[in-house]
Every structure is written in structure tokens, then in C-alpha cells.
Specification:
This protein is mainly α and about 110 residues long. It has helices at about 5, 15-20, 40-45, 55-65, 95-110, and strands spanning about 10-15, 30-35, 50. The chain contains 5 helices and 3 strands; from the N terminus they run αβαβαβαα.
Length: about 110
């Protein structure tokens, strides 16, 4: 799928994201429809009103039922979950902060 393919169709977006987020996350389609929360965005996409970027946790069921598909696009976004395990009363703040800093640098390198 190319940028031309995806921008030719309506993009369903969160209404508050137009002004508040990084330039890379602004709508790429000239035709948009906005909603106030991800659940409404998901419902609009399921109703075939357009395509959208929706957190995986909200679309897993729809993907399993094959009501939705993931569009493969060069600008697609992928998220990774990170966690930390430590012993009770472990005060290794320096290690924890180094991990947080490394993750943040990796995330912002994507933009």
C-alpha cells in the first residue's frame, strides 16, 4: 500500500489530536472525520466510514473476527510495551532511570 492509496480514502481521527500532537501524527488524508474517543473511531472504522490508527488493545477482537485488517504502510506505527521487575525494597533508581532514558531516546528517534 502506498501513501497515495491511503490518502485517497477518509481517515477517522481523534478530534483533540489536530492541534495537540507531533506533526507526524496529523491526518495524512485530505478527507477526515473526527470523534472524541477511540471507541467511536473504532466504531466508525468497523462501519466502513474510513480508516484509522487505533490502539491494538481496542482492535484485537475485531481482528480475530476478521472484521478489520491491518493496513501495511511504510509510515505505519508499531508500539512496544515495556515493563520493569524488581525485588521489594530495591532502590536501584539509577538503573531504572537509565532504562527510562534509553526507551525515551529510542521512541523519539522514530519521529
Amino acid at each position: 500500500m502506498t501513501s497515495t492509496d491511503i490518502t485517497a480514502h477518509r481517515q477517522i481521527v481523534l478530534s483533540h489530536l489536530f492541534d495537540e500532537i507531533h506533526q507526524d501524527f496529523r491526518p495524512i488524508s485530505s478527507s477526515t472525520m473526527s470523534f472524541s474517543n477511540y471507541q467511536e473511531v473504532l466504531e466508525a472504522v468497523v462501519d466502513n466510514l474510513g480508516w484509522g490508527i487505533i490502539p491494538e488493545t481496542l482492535v484485537k477482537q475485531e481482528l480475530r473476527k476478521e472484521h478489520l485488517v491491518v493496513l501495511k504502510h511504510p509510515n505505519g506505527m508499531y508500539y512496544e510495551s515495556f515493563g520493569e521487575m524488581s525485588r521489594p525494597n530495591d532502590h536501584t533508581v539509577e538503573t531504572r532511570q537509565a532504562l527510562i532514558d534509553g526507551i525515551e531516546e529510542g521512541i523519539y528517534d522514530l519521529f
